[in-house]
Specification:
Blueprint (H helix, E strand, L loop, with lengths): L10 H14 L3 H11 L7 E2 L9 H7 L4 E7 L2 E5 L5 E5 L2 E4 L1
Antiparallel strand pairs: 1-5, 2-3, 3-4, 4-5
Helix pairs in contact: 1-2, 1-3
Amino acid sequence: MRAKTMGLDGFWENSDAALDKCAKAKTVTEIVDALNEHFDKSAGDAFFGGSGGDRQMLEVMYEAVGWTVYDVEAEYHFKARDSNGDSFEYCEGDVSRI
């Protein structure tokens, strides 16, 4: 279910579902696809709309197997690299391939 089509009641459940998929993702493409399944794009390749919640994308990526998190400027601005060497930048919810 996409965030744009649901009421507030399901918003946080949708955010958690998106983060659960990101936690299992092995590639940047899988991150982008998971987020696009749950949220409409804003800028960049994908968007995570739940950045004000209890779980954050940064902590999920730190814990995800096969990922390297780097260039962390803040909880809301960092880069992550998959085991293939492909990376994305996360900035205030927007995810862009780099």
